[in-house]
Amino acid sequence: MAFNDFFAGEIAVELLKQLLAISRKSCLCKSSADNLISSIEELLPIIDEIKYSGVELSAVRQSQLDRFSETLRGGIELARKVLASGRWNVYKNLQLARKMEKLEKQVSRFVSGPMQAHLLADVHHMRFETMERFDRLEGRLEQRLNSMKIGAGGWVEEAVKRMEVEEEASLGIIGGVGLDLGKNNVKKMIIGRDDLNVIGIWGIGGSGKTTLANEICKDNQVRSHFNDRILFLTVSQSPDVQQLRARIWGFLTGNEAMGYTNNLFVPQGTLQCEWGSGPRTLVVLDDVWSLPVLEQLIFRIPTYKTLVVSRFKFPANVVSEVYKVELLREDESMSLFCHSAFGQTSIPPTANETLVKQIVNECKGLPLAIKVIGASLRDQPEMYWASAKKRLLRGEPICESHENKLLERMAISVEYLCKKVKECFLDLGSFPEDKKIPLDVLINMWVEIHDIDEEEAFAILVELADKNLLTLVKDARVGDSYSSFYEICVTQHDVLRDLAIHLSNSGDVNERKRLLMPRRDAELPREWERNTDQPFNAQIVSVHTGEMREMDWFRMEFPKAEVLILNFSSNEYFLPPFIDDMPKLRALIVINHGTTEAVLENFSAFTNLANLRSLWLEKVWAPQLTNLIVPLKNLQKLSMVLCKVNNSFHPSVLDLPLIFPRLSELIIDHCDDLIKLPVSICEVNSLQSLSITNCHRLCEMPANLGMLKKLQILRLYACPELKTLPPSIGELIGLKYLDISQCVNLRCLPKEIGKLASLEKIDMRECSQIMSLPTQTALSNLKSLKRVICDDEVSWQWKYLEKAMPDLYVQVAEKWYSLDWLDG
Fold first, then answer.
1. pLDDT digit string (tens) for 247-269?
2. Nearest CA to 794 among 732, 746, 760?
3. Helices 408-415 and 155-171: angle between axes, nearest 10 degrees
4. Which residues are CB-contacts of 726 (< 8 A; sequence separation ≥ 6)?
């Protein structure tokens, strides 16, 4: 809408006021004033209609309105002169009366002439555009009717989802410290940072992202900053991108009606220009699922800001700053749950307080889960609540409403994934709730059953993290070349874990791809026992119990099982006899969540594990390996974490190359009884990676370490009692990476280290006793060395080598401390 339309209306109103005064005062001008009043009163509604329609006028019509505005403006001046003229100045009043008659004729001619033609033209255009829009609508309706099905991104589903989101946002009771903190942080980005054009709100599905965005839009300070120029759009999974672009462009240019007609005048591609004088504008894009879609909806104009609300994390070059929505605190969770379940913000005296707290705890601070579960239990008897608690503990929906409103809503995030990534997400349901999952375990599992390599597996993990479907607990060195996966852990919100279990547990129990125990139980599920007459075709089997004795197991056949996960909490554990009936088993994970190392029994079950490639043992007494054990001829990776291991390699007659002929990676982490690394390990010629980390009593490495000719990675991280490295380390001709960081009592690097022609990287941060290096002549033979990480005290000696080795980069490490290992 042009400014002239607005001023024409304002001028007409002012002129009408003046004419009313003249009509009451002046006799000579009364007739003309009365006629003008009548004409302008007829004209005002039409001018208002033009003013508020938002339709851009053609150049000819705009020019006519401009001239008419000038006429009315002159009429106001004339009316003021009439009012100011004395009653007895007859000559002047006569002149003014003639001018009033002339003004009356001009207004009358416009109303009866051009104005009528304009109205006829408008009717014609409206009729044509209406027919055209109906034609387009008919085609679009026919197209969209084909996609009108739940779960397929149809428009009915999107409409229902939008209604639910608006209904949730209208509750407005999430409030409290969490919402206020989020609102203040986002406001600072939006109105306090002129350098930010695109800001994001990121969070897990159901965490209150849309509620927060709505609160931002309603905030008085934000509304004042943008002068109420705020547009809120829901993008969804299958958006009409061109229509959204047209609506945004129409809003930016002040021609909002364009967004509902066509997009012929919308600039193509990503618009970037320097409209420094334009009005401030905020556009909120809610429920964005795709980076390509987002990029098309961003117009980079200095005075225009975009707030992106999504479950997914977008690159920093697209979304400059992101606020991650936090889950609710315990008191906030309780208030929201009580509002949904009881219609008040506290537990009523008649309710079972313990039961209420247990159910709220299962929601883990997720607003959507709290509201849905609370509403599902409203006005239900206590027995129903107790049943609901048990079902939640098993990862099952408590009722149809819970399944539809929470699990199915959360499932949208998963259905959007490609097949392989979705399968990896579902695998996460195999691990216990509230426990960190070692990334090494995940990577091994995915590599074995999804036919991918470690790099692709890690990329999938990052994608799931960016989509808020899991959380990475990172070490400061994660992402470096040669970084180890066992240094990283993964956590997942319980509702997402329940979703993975819910999606995996559909269908007949014998035909499920994943056979899972959702929670720790004293015994195996009865459903499994009732179906033991037929084989279980699961690819992944996950068991979570307390102490298990031989009599606690029953016979089960798993002809297709490739991964077995045994989670338990006890001091003794009898390995399941059905391992014998897993001929395709490729990965075995044994994790004790108890307080002390557990003694494992029934290692004879390993007899038929010819295909086992990966073995993870955590917080157990590692078995004593003897030559009597059947060789694990395909085992490639052995990990022992928080284990008692000293007896495992003790016998002098032990022939490790015979037992592990293909072992390529050995990890020993946080094993406090390891004092000397056994000589027998140096005889495993196939070993390519050896990691002895956080073993605080390790004081000696074997003298014949150099026998490991294929070794490429040697990690001796955080072994504070280790004082020297054997000279034979110089014989590791294939070594590419050496990590001796936090070996605080290591006194020196042996001069033989200069023989490591293949060495590419050394990490020796926090080795405070190493004050000098081998001679420059010896170190100059490290032709492949590209990177050294060290403390400032010794860095100058390495930097001296940079002149002779231009490819070398010396990095001075920052101090970094972590107590994550205390958190289990």
1. 888 787 776 554 444 554 555 54
2. 746
3. 130
4. 701, 702, 703, 704, 705, 706, 750
